[in-house]
Amino acid sequence: TPVEERSLLETGEFTLDSVRQSLTGQEDTIVYRLIERAKFPLNSRLYDQKYELVPGSPVTLIQFLFKQTEIVQAKAGRYLNPEETPFFPENLPPSVIQDRTYPVFLHPPASSVNVNNIIWDVYFNKFLPLLVKPGDDGNYAATSASDIELLQALSRRIHYGKFVAEVKYREAPHEYEPLIRAKDRNALMNLLTFKKQEEMVMRRVEKKGMVFGQYVSLNDTESTGKYKIDPSLVSQLYEKWVMPLTKDVEVEYLLKRLDGEQKQVP
Ligand SMILES: C=C(O[C@@H]1C=C(C(=O)O)C=C[C@H]1O)C(=O)O
Fold first, then answer.
1. Best mutation site among 27, 164, 208 for ligand 1, i.e. most ligand atoms within 8 A of its Cβ?
2. What pLDDT does 217 receive?
3. Neighbours of 10 (CB within 10 A)
4. pLDDT digits (tens, 9 = 90+) for 14-54
5. From ligand 1's centre to the CA of 167, what distance in Å?
6. How far is the centre of ligand 1, averaged over its atoms, from the C-alpha of 243 (Å)?
7. Residue of the CA atom closest to atom 8 of ligand 1
8. Nearest CA to ligand 1 atom 4
9. Ligand 1: which atom is nearest the Cα of residue 160?
10. Which residue among 35, 54, 97, 163 is the one 20 to 30 A from 197 at the CA level?
């Protein structure tokens, strides 16, 4: 199996390289799911409580369906996996199946970082209107299923920042520790940022938007030059939100990285 497709929790080989390979594999999932969501129009009634699509409840239909989905998936053990972060963590039921155990790689006090409320807000208020055409086809069940899968893929990618941060910390603890103790967010952000890597990611996801978003025809000479989603929108999504939020997760994780750890004797 290509390394991009294996879970690092399976192999236990966490290095900056292997973590980046996992992020690369996750790009494929994100681009496929963008293409799937773009098949439906906005369907804004799903996201607007005033239509009261869930009778007698103060929540939007998407909130209702998302929470119910997480409840079912929690029973299957989804959130025992440290790569997964719930959007509605309150009162999730325990897993009903005998689950495998996961190796502990993350620093436990820092592993609970959760920015899903920000991902939710950015997705519905800023990004979705750019991705889809306006309108309402009433296809709420399929549209919400598509939103849920896409949001879960984005959340998994962004929260992978925890694994990235742990790897970077272990590679250079003496560089990180003073900044963590000083709670210096800006200096931490600078230390963990690799501009060249970010530019590569942006170019690659745009290319994936082109390759995965082609219209396939049996007639070789026929090329419409059109794509199922705008490839530059994919790199915009990464530049404006996915990478900055991944780095926020890295910073938040690092700020908690020394919690519960004994102070070193100088
Ligand atoms: C995830 C990393 O940390 C930062 C975030 C990146 C991203 O979100 O793709 C890329 C480079 C770094 O600035 C990394 O170094 O790979």
1. 164
2. 86
3. 11
4. 999 999 999 999 999 999 999 999 999 999 999 998 888 88
5. 12
6. 7
7. 243
8. 193
9. 1
10. 35
Q: In the predicted model, what is the mean pLDDT of residues 229-243?
A: 98
Atom 13 of ligand 1, residue of closest alpha carbon: 193
Instruction: Report the distance separating Cα 141 and Cα 162, nearest Å.
Output: 32
Q: What is the pLDDT of residues 112-128, one digit of tens each?
A: 999 999 999 999 999 99
Residues with CB under 6 A from ligand 1: 20, 164, 192-194, 197-198, 201, 243, 246-247
Tokens of 205: 């996801």
Whole-number Å distance, alpha carbon 247 to ligand 1 midpoint, is: 7
CA of 110 to the centre of ligand 1 (A): 19
Q: Whole-prediction pTM value? A: 0.95
Specify the pLDDT at position 56.
84
